[in-house]
Amino acid sequence: MSVQPIISILEKLEKMHKSLLEHAYRKTELVKNNDMEELDKMLKIEQSHVAAIEQLESQRQQKVVEYFQSKGIEVSSVPTIAELLEAVEDEKERQKLADVRNRLLKVVENLKIQNDLNQQLIFNSLQLVNITLNMLRPQPEEFNYSEKTVRSGNVLRKSMFDSQV
């Protein structure tokens, strides 16, 4: 059995991750420009990409298991591409598999970096919104639960906490 179907799936995974990376770059600009409508649309597109990636990953796992079974190699868990590289005997196929694996790993790493940046931008935006809201809200009066503040003269005022049961 050839590893070509696995290589094909890895190339599709690479393509999907590259597309996600492009969306992550675009998302950075949308966050900077505070375009929430487009950001919402972008998130829906990303969800469909993630679903497609999960499907491709499931196919990849199945094909790798089938490859190992065809070679008579037992697999206890989901085998990795690194394990597959060790099992492939044809040098050309091994090299092609290694190349596509390395490209995919690079795209995934870049995607992680970009998503971390986006997460930090969103966190900073939320902090700014919270600071602004705190400045606009009236500050509550300080409460002192001594008897003096509860009773002023002969008039009894309600306190926030009623200690009588």
UniProtKB/TrEMBL annotation:
Gene3D superfamilies: FlgN-like. Transmembrane segments: none annotated. The keyword Glycoprotein does not apply. Keywords: Bacterial flagellum biogenesis, Cell projection, Cilium, Flagellum. One of its GO terms (biological process) is bacterial-type flagellum assembly. This is Flagellar protein FlgN. It comes from Ureibacillus thermophilus.
